[in-house]
């Protein structure tokens, strides 16, 4: 089943995003420990969301391979594994140092949980639209909190609920690209203000852009300013790369940024110069003369000394606060200088290990450079894995952006916004220590996950979700007969979150308020058990994701990977059209074909054929309209018996819609052989078929077929187009060398399928239930 259909039932991503975005607004009492209450709450929701997702997975080898080769997934898993190894091997047995290291490990683990929960639970367009709305609302609220704090104490600038300018600036620098990207659409200038949700979203994005930019200036954080500039350059380049060449939209494309800039200038004029923004900006001309920059250089020298001493594994995750004081004293002695003393958050000091042991770690205990601190704590291996996560993200994002831009505007905008935000964070992390805090860094993982979710097209989501066994979520009380691995994952999540509270000097507030909240949230992962979804009903019909232009040029769209007992095809439908269905279905089973266009639905019952070819001819109801529209045709074959029913053995031999595509099967006489071919001997397979109608476009697909415990799985590995189409009564006789689309050999059994379509929207596909094994 496609996970995108759970938009009204799957509340975990919404709760997770709300928890992350509320950090600059909610002011909790200070617990006096390293990371406070907000990170605990975010970690609780993150681990609970991940546990709900893990409880619904059923992996296969191919699904695991697809998962590991997607973007930064493999690098992230290796990074978390390396961090765990670093904690196990290098962390002291007891004391404040172990508590700090454990807090850092839990921060990284929660970040990975947020990433995976968002990528595999928020991949539909509805989810992404809701995510964009939440990000914009969160940006407005965070900016309002920052402005309010700046108005109360102009000397300290904008701090929000964090009470620190650097933390708020880091948070805002990720939200500003989102606001700019969704503001530049210009929807409010070409449509009535309240006509569409897109127009309202554009208006909200414009307001958010003004407020975020103004508040970011009020934080007086130079690294965040530089990061925002880089993020703006990235999103500008990506928007220009994917823009549509329409003359009437050029003025609208730049309207929102111009309005935002004008409002921003007016805001700063009204504010005056008391904020210190101008004076802070002047320091860019001579950064080496600034005291804070010189102190950063000394801290970076400490990192370099630590890296030089232990380049491979470092000193252990979260170890810098406990080790920096010793190296600071050594450097001061070597250079005949005084050791930099600890001071407030704006003056970077290096507390000694006894000081950290006594009062805990703070901003003064960090080197204000994420990359150098990673290398010092986890060695060059840990730094390389972290950079691998970033490289994997940008590589996939840039590679699939042109394809995503053609499929969905929402996905394109979210992907561009995410890449701009992550680019801004990469620059900001060079001089901002805020990314070490558990109530700031989750937004980085959230944006990383939303960017990757935007790259997963609807067909890919269906293919991967079918493969790994994601099923529709049903909230119910615990059924002990279905606990199994779900209970194990829930208990594991509960165990991980509980570990985050192992703090040697935790306050009573932390013990008696936060722990019950976290334990209760994690317990939901055990109590809430998903059930396999029953047969689809007309009210559950999917909304088409493909446009008519794509279907007209690419033909009926099958998932790249699908379960032959449960899959969907997107293609043209029209009221009054005849249709023919050819299939094979095992005994004691029932199959249904559900046709929907987002507004209407039509269900056709397909009786058992005793594993023999059978044919059913029907007519599309007239309410589908007199013109062709894109519809979703969903096949679902289940064995008879009580719920939950198992998938039945089902093979779709063919399907044709339209007057020219129906007359029994107009693509017939399929042949595919011999039974085996040896590619090392240059052997080839022959495929033949006959047409009873003219078609302008014809495509031959070769599908690798494997058997899983959920049925037969088909993956299209090669497609060949017939340049001149096919004419009536023509016979095609061609050869296939056994190679996939990349020119490589993928051993295994293959089936042959033909798709043919015409400009007037008539279309047909035919397949042969016979395999050729490629060796």
What can you tell me about this protein's structure?
With 775 residues, the protein is an alpha+beta fold. The chain has 22 helices and 16 strands. It has helices at residues 12-21, 37-54, 61-68, 73-90, 96-119, 125-152, 165-183, 187-190, 197-218, 222-242, 250-271, 277-282, 291-309, 320-335, 353-359, 370-407, 409-428, 441-455, 458-468, 484-499, 508-527, 548-554; strands spanning 561-563, 566-573, 578-585, 589-596, 601-606, 614-619, 629-639, 650-657, 667-673, 676-677, 685-691, 697-708, 711-722, 731-736, 748-757, 763-774. The strands form 3 sheets. Strands 1, 3, 6, 8, 10, 12, 13, 15 and 16 form a 9-stranded mixed beta sheet that branches. A 4-stranded antiparallel beta sheet has the order 2-7-4-5. Strands 9-11-14 form a 3-stranded antiparallel beta sheet, with no helix packed on it. α6 (125-152) runs parallel beside α9 and α17 runs antiparallel to α18 (441-455). It is elongated, with a radius of gyration of 29 Å. The two termini are 32 Å apart. Residues 1-9, 246-251, 336-348, 458-488 and 497-541 have low confidence and may be disordered.
